[in-house]
Design brief:
Blueprint lengths: L11 E6 L17 H6 L2 E2 L6 H8 L5 E8 H4 L3 E4 L22 E4 L21 E6 L20
Antiparallel strand pairs: 1-3, 2-5, 3-6, 4-5
């Protein structure tokens, strides 16, 4: 895996949550880790240019998902930008983008303070700006149903 910092940096990064259970309102200090994040010991995030691929590869059976919109500045010091060339989704640190065509992925490492989060990882009300519901269209995910007004995903 290679690490670098892309330019320009994104304004937002995104965390996808499955349709069930819905995230609590208001968000807690820290949401539970997904099984994938717990396995890899970092939180998998996507940029707007990666999120459609993530949805199609990991959330294809969902009718809707929750998108956590995180201003990059809030987590920048905990981000490691990594590619996953040659590593499939079932491998530790792997990804759907085994050819690296969507660039480096933002992964959040060790951002929890004492008594916060799980495994040193935390994602909750301090990091998340807003939560949107993204409805899947006729059989596929589409930018047309993007729940936020800006940073529309690119195919």
């Amino acid at each position: 895996m290679s690490n670098a910092t892309p330019t320009p940096l994104p304004k937002y990064i995104y965390k996808i949550l499955p349709s069930s259970p819905p995230p609590p309102e208001p968000l807690p200090i820290s949401l539970p880790l997904s099984a994938l994040d717990a396995r890899d010991n970092f939180m998998h995030m996507s940029t707007s240019s990666q999120i459609l691929g993530t949805l199609q590869n990991f959330f294809s059976s969902e009718t809707h998902v929750y998108i956590l919109r995180i201003p990059y500045e809030r987590v920048a010091k905990f981000i490691v930008w990594e590619d996953s060339k040659g590593k499939g989704p079932d491998e530790k640190g792997g990804c759907w983008d085994v050819d690296g065509k969507r660039g480096l992925f933002p992964h959040v490492y060790a951002n929890a303070g004492p008594g916060e989060g799980e495994q040193g990882l935390k994602l909750g009300r301090d990091e998340v700006e807003s939560v949107g519901v993204w409805e899947r269209g006729d059989g596929s995910w589409s930018p047309e149903s993007w729940p936020f007004g800006e940073d529309v995903p690119k195919e």
